[in-house]
Fold this protein.
Amino acid sequence: MLSLLRPALTLLIALSLITGLAYPLLTTGIARLVFPYQAAGSLLERDGKAVGSLLIGQGFSDPKYFWSRPSATSPMAYNPLSSGGSNLGPLNPALADAIKSRIDALHTADPGNKATVPADLVYSSASGLDPHISIAAALYQAGRVARVRNLPVDRVRELIAGHSETMLFGFLGEPRVNVLALNLALDATH
């Protein structure tokens, strides 16, 4: 029995050191050398202080800002420790209530906007942490943001265009806007 146990324990310790310590340290070291900004979390700073990451969404509810895609993480929205969707099925009344309340909030913030609300402003994502909204969702909010900030709507649309990202490799995903980057650009606009 001991002759079987010794090689098994040796292999367990060796593989634990290789896969649990050496490999993560190696990949982290390479990432920090090759992609230092991304490996550090793609943090955005304002006045020398980190205000968020380009990779994790944040909630914005002030009408002067573009609003992010809703988050269904718990116990609070945009909780990176609890990434996940609501798991509410299409016939669940709680989903219908959540969507209705999100649409009502958008209409309350911008009562004159009669355009169709883009889906990504009312449906949470599978991760609950998406930092992007569609170009249509940004343009839907442009009038409200321009009005509240006393900016020409064309200037706000220019900011959206300037912060728009194309499809990855020209065919993956959809054109999008990073909400945090766009809102920081808005704050920098005088």
Q: What stands out?
A: The first strand starts at residue 43 and ends at 46. The beta strands are 43-46, 49-53, 132-134, 164-165, 176-178. The chain has two domains: 1-40, 42-188.
